[in-house]
Design brief:
CATH architecture: 3-Layer(aba) Sandwich
Structural class: alpha/beta
CATH topology: Rossmann fold
Strand order of the largest sheet: 2-1-3-4-6-5-7-8
CATH class: Alpha Beta
Distance between the termini: 40 Å
Helix content: 25-40%
Order of helices and strands: HEHEHEHHEHEHEHHEEHH
Shape: globular
C-alpha cells in the first residue's frame, strides 16, 4: 500500500502549477469559484501525479485523476483506493516507483471488489466510518475477470464505490477483445477479416444495466469529456452508503487507433451520437439522463478511429454501410430507450425533454450489452 508523501493537510502542500492561466484547459477557471471543477483548484489532491508511464492522450489516466481527486474532495481526504491489475496499475506503479498520492492497494486482476470489501469491513471493525473505500479497474477486470466478485459486492450492498474505466478492450496485454468491446471494432482477437469483420454484433455485456439490475443505491455513467458531470456524479456517489457503481468511458489512442489529441473529442462524440448513454440510476430505476445537445451520426465517431478503418474507404467514404447502419441502429435505440435528445420533437426520440429520465426508461428486460453498442 502506498501513502501520501506528507502527513500535512492538503492545504499546506505545494499547489498544482497551472501553465495555461485564463483558459478552459484546467477546469474552467474563468467561472465563478463556486462553479469551478476540482481540477481548477491548485490545492486539489492530484491523486495521480506526473511521472507515470501512460501513453500520450491516455483517457484512463485522465479518468482516474478526475475521479479520485473528486473523491478526495468529497471525503476530506479520507479515502483508500483498491486497484485491480491492468493498464492503470502497470503504468502508475513500476516497481519501486509510484505516481499515487493517496492510500492505494494493488489487487489481482479479478478480485478488486473482494479486496475493497475486506478493506471496508476492516475499517468498520475499527470504527473508522469516516474513511471511504473506492475500487477501480478497467473493463477487463470489471466486465469479464472481476464480474463474479463485483456481482457479489453488489448483492451484499458493501459500502464501496467501484469505478470501471472502460477503454473497451484488454489494452495492457495487446488489445484483445473484452465483453465491453463494441461491434465491428478490430482488436487482436477480432480481426478485420471475412464477411463480418471485427467484433461480432450481439455479444458482450452492458455493465451499467447489470449493475442497475442488482438494485444497488447508485449507478452512473460518465465520460472524460464532461468534467463537471463526472465530478458531480462522484459527489453524489460519496453522499450515500452501500454499493455504488460508476462506469467512465476512457478512449485509448493505442487500442482505438486514434490521435492522442482526439481523446476528449471521441469521448464527447460517443455521447453525442447516442452510442454511449450518460445516465444515473438509483435503486434499480434510471432517474436522470444527460441530453444530447448536438446529435451526430455514428460515422463522425467511427471515422477517426483506426479500429474501424475497415468500415471506410481510403477517402473516408463508407465501405460497409451495412455495419455502419447496424451501429447507427444501436445508437437510435439508445436515444429512444433513454430519451437522450434535448427536446421532444425528434422522430427518433418520441419522449419529452428535461433532465429527469423519461417514462419507460427503466431498463428492466433490456438486453444487457456493451454500453457502446454490442446490442
Amino acid at each position: 500500500m502506498t501513502s501520501p508523501p506528507s502527513a500535512d493537510p492538503p492545504a499546506s502542500r505545494e499547489g498544482v502549477k497551472f501553465y495555461q492561466v485564463g483558459s478552459f484547459a484546467a477546469g474552467n477557471r474563468l467561472l465563478d469559484p463556486a462553479l469551478r471543477t476540482v481540477q481548477a483548484d491548485e490545492r486539489r489532491a492530484n491523486s495521480l501525479t506526473s511521472g507515470h508511464r501512460a501513453c500520450q492522450g491516455c483517457g484512463e489516466a485522465l479518468g482516474a485523476r478526475y475521479t479520485l481527486d473528486a473523491v478526495m474532495r468529497a471525503t476530506g481526504g479520507q479515502m483508500v483506493a483498491v486497484n485491480a491489475t491492468g493498464c492503470l496499475e502497470v503504468f502508475s506503479t513500476p516497481f519501486p516507483e509510484t505516481s499515487w498520492r493517496v492510500p492505494w492497494l494493488h489487487s489481482l486482476f479479478g478480485n478488486a471488489p473482494a479486496v475493497a470489501t475486506g478493506v471496508a469491513a476492516a475499517l468498520r471493525a475499527q470504527g473508522r466510518t469516516d474513511v471511504r473505500v473506492v475500487a477501480q479497474a478497467g473493463d477487463g477486470g470489471t466486465v469479464d475477470i472481476g464480474f463474479g466478485c463485483l456481482s457479489g459486492m453488489f448483492e451484499r450492498n458493501d459500502d464501496v464505490l467501484f469505478v470501471c474505466y472502460d477503454n473497451e478492450a484488454y489494452m495492457n496485454t495487446g488489445v484483445q477483445r473484452s465483453s465491453a468491446t463494441p461491434p465491428a471494432a478490430r482488436t487482436a482477437t477480432t480481426e478485420a477479416v471475412g464477411p463480418q469483420p471485427g467484433n461480432p454484433f450481439g455479444q458482450g455485456k452492458n455493465l451499467p444495466l447489470l449493475a442497475i439490475a442488482h438494485d444497488i443505491p447508485y449507478v452512473a455513467t460518465a465520460t472524460v469529456a464532461d468534467l463537471h458531470d463526472l465530478e458531480a456524479k462522484v459527489e453524489r456517489a460519496m453522499a450515500v452508503r452501500g454499493a455504488r457503481y460508476l462506469h467512465v468511458l476512457v478512449p485509448c489512442p493505442l487500442g482505438w487507433g486514434s490521435a492522442p489529441r482526439d481523446t476528449v473529442r471521441l469521448a464527447r462524440l460517443a455521447k453525442e451520437t447516442g452510442l454511449f448513454p450518460v445516465l444515473e440510476a438509483e435503486h434499480g430505476e434510471v432517474v436522470r439522463v444527460s441530453r444530447i445537445r448536438h446529435r451526430q451520426p455514428v460515422e463522425e465517431y467511427l471515422r477517426p478511429q483506426g479500429r474501424y478503418a475497415h468500415l471506410f474507404t481510403a477517402s473516408g467514404a463508407p465501405a460497409r454501410p451495412d455495419l455502419i447502419g447496424g451501429l447507427q441502429r444501436i445508437a437510435d435505440r439508445n436515444v429512444r430507450r433513454f430519451g437522450l435528445l434535448d427536446g421532444g420533437d425528434d422522430e427518433d426520440q418520441g419522449r419529452g425533454s428535461g433532465d429527469r429520465a423519461p417514462a419507460g426508461a427503466d431498463p428492466a428486460g433490456a438486453s444487457p450489452r456493451s454500453p457502446t453498442g454490442a446490442g
